[in-house]
Specification:
This protein has two domains: 200 residues, 2-Layer Sandwich (BirA Bifunctional Protein, domain 2); 44 residues, SH3 type barrels, CATH 2.30.30. 27% of the residues lie in helices and 32% in strands. The strands form two sheets. It has a seven-stranded mixed beta sheet, sandwiched between helices. It is an alpha+beta fold. Biotin (BTN) binds next to helix 2, strand 3, strand 6 and strand 7. The site of biotin has 19 residues, from helix 2, strand 3, strand 6 and strand 7. Its EC number is 6.3.4.15. GO terms for molecular function: ATP binding; biotin--[biotin carboxyl-carrier protein] ligase activity; DNA binding. Keywords: ATP-binding, Biotin, DNA-binding, Ligase, Nucleotide-binding, Repressor, Transcription, Transcription regulation. Belongs to the biotin--protein ligase family. This is Bifunctional ligase/repressor BirA.
Length: 254
């Protein structure tokens, strides 16, 4: 219904019960034949869910959304940084549409509510040649996690049921998230990142906050100053605003 109202072509959706990781299974589909832009796999549980930086993403049955979307990068790998920003914006905006007013983004795309993680995004890029560069955009949104998850998760987290104070219709979340994400990706393809910079900044959790950046062995202290037109993080260090790219730094609040 969401898609019909927006006049969009429906997305192809695969639904599985238990998979290793939706990112890995979607990638295996790709080996069997081409996928359509926006083709998505949703699963009820993952046995080997993956987070960023090689971490595990705890994925109990029916407690979260676990999904991965295939997206060709016609702009080639140069689009990678922007993609990360666009995906974060789309997840935050879907959460806002469904009633989470205080959703925020921690650069590039951690989705937080009151400093606690609501959703994580793992984007994997493949194909070096411009004509087959593509991304697998993996998104996990906590819906109603069991409390035992504390044992597995090493950062403060929250879920939709806690934030909204009621049971959450998962299908509505999937539909809203996929519609918002595919609209945003299409707009990014046509117009690049510039329409998204201000929209992303409306959710910026870091602005003017003291941050520590870890770059290999080097630690940099500064103040977050939003994002540049290419999606790089701007940080004021000793009076000078510098740019940092995702992948090159890891970020902590002070
Ligand atoms: C993060 O570390 O914040 C990223 C977490 C990404 C988790 C999602 S769940 C669906 C998809 N499949 C995976 O194995 N990981 C992503």
């Amino acid at each position: 219904k969401e898609f019909a109202q927006r006049g969009q072509k429906p997305l192809k959706l695969h639904v599985e019960r238990i998979v290793s990781s939706t990112n890995d299974v979607l990638r295996s589909y790709l080996k069997q034949g081409p996928l359509e832009a926006g083709e998505t796999l949703v699963a009820e549980a993952q046995t080997d869910g993956r987070g960023r930086r090689g971490k595990r993403w705890y994925s109990p049955y029916a407690s979260s959304l676990y999904l991965s979307m295939y997206w060709p990068l016609e702009q080639g790998m140069a689009a990678a940084m922007g993609l990360s920003i666009v995906a974060g914006y789309a997840v935050a905006d879907a959460a806002r549409q469904l009633g989470i007013a205080d959703v925020r983004l921690k650069w590039p795309n951690d989705v937080l509510v009151k400093g606690k993680k609501l959703s994580g995004i793992l984007i994997e890029l493949e194909g070096q040649a411009v004509d087959n560069a593509h991304a697998i955009i993996g998104i996990g949104v906590n819906i109603n996690l069991p409390t035992m998850v504390e044992e597995y998760v090493d950062q403060p987290w929250t879920d939709l049921q806690t934030e909204l104070g009621q049971r959450v219709p998962r299908n509505l979340w999937v539909a809203t998230l996929l519609a918002t994400l595919s609209d945003a990706l299409e707009e990014f393809k046509q117009q690049g990142l510039s329409p998204f910079v201000q929209r992303w900044l409306a959710y910026d959790n870091l602005h003017d906050r003291a941050v520590t950046l870890l770059m290999g062995q080097t630690t940099i202290h500064g103040y977050a100053k939003g994002i540049a037109e290419d999606g790089a993080l701007l940080v004021e260090v000793e009076g000078e605003v510098k740019r940092y790219h995702a992948g090159e730094v890891s970020l902590r609040y002070d």
